[in-house]
Amino acid sequence: xxxxxxxxxxMVLVGCGARSGLPIEEERDDAGxxxxxxxxxxxxGDLGPYDVLVDAxxxxxxxxxGQVWIAGGVFNAGLASVSRDGGEVQLxxxxxxxxxxxxxxxxxxxxxxxGFGDTTGELRALRGxxxxxxxxxxxxxxxxxxxxxxxxxxxxNSGSLRDxxxxxxxxxxxxGGSRRTLVDALGLPVAxxxxxxxxxWVDARRGQVGAVxxxxxxxxxxxxxxxxxxxxxxxSGGVYVADNETVWRMGLAGEAPETVVAFDDEIESLRVxxxxxxxxxxxxxxxTRVVFAAMDGxxxxxxxxxxxxxxxxxxxxxxxVGEIRGGxxxxxxxxxxxxx
Length: 340
Fold this sequence. Notes:
Helix content is 1%, strand content 54%. By secondary structure, the protein is mainly beta. It has a 5-stranded mixed sheet, with no helix packed on it.
């Protein structure tokens, strides 16, 4: 039976304001985005300040083997990568019609394109050259790759009630071609996460969290009554859900939902790590920032203003500062946040 969340649950953490967290230098007219002053450099495992990797032609969306992968944020944008230590940006694909759900494995990259019509989206792969693995997709997003299978949502981007019931979770074989719909008739499944045996989704239109077997069949609604779910992640035996300003955690079977952290603005993106929760927030004026909340119950802290989409590799966190059309990609050692 679906569990209805009681929003009177006591918050573990209190909201974080734009002025809280790591200190930020005052910006000068001739300066790029400000850098919090930290004494040691972040090299060879030492703690250090935020590193500017590159002026990016888009948003940092994935990491793999020391590379940060960049997806252009506008129509006919490109796919690029840059070393985690900075340097020259390498362009891999041009004129990709709105890249969603980018992920990378070694020198290979996979992504979803929205296209210019309702069913013109594709799952595409970079394996030396670019090729299509699946086409005819309706607004696909939230790409995952587990055990040689791709999982993603379709029907993820529509404000029209005429599209109610057109959302679905889809599985495609690594080689493409073989496609299976695991669950359909969803409202607006804006994000998914893949667990050991099930795929989880958040439905922004219906305010629900659902799950379905990775083999298909046996779907169920785990939580309902959410205000505005935007992101979901499976981490360390739990399912983390970003709902409006709150991050919830529940078991893999949907049991014991509890509040992890509450911010003071809407959560746009979520990244749960071994040291805590990084989140991209958006306020009512569409201003963005990235914040960090440790798992010890301490107050959330500001990472950087005008920033979005935190991602990670084994030792670092990355985010993009500036417009979605392109900005500055920054990186910092995770240990920098764990130490404070």
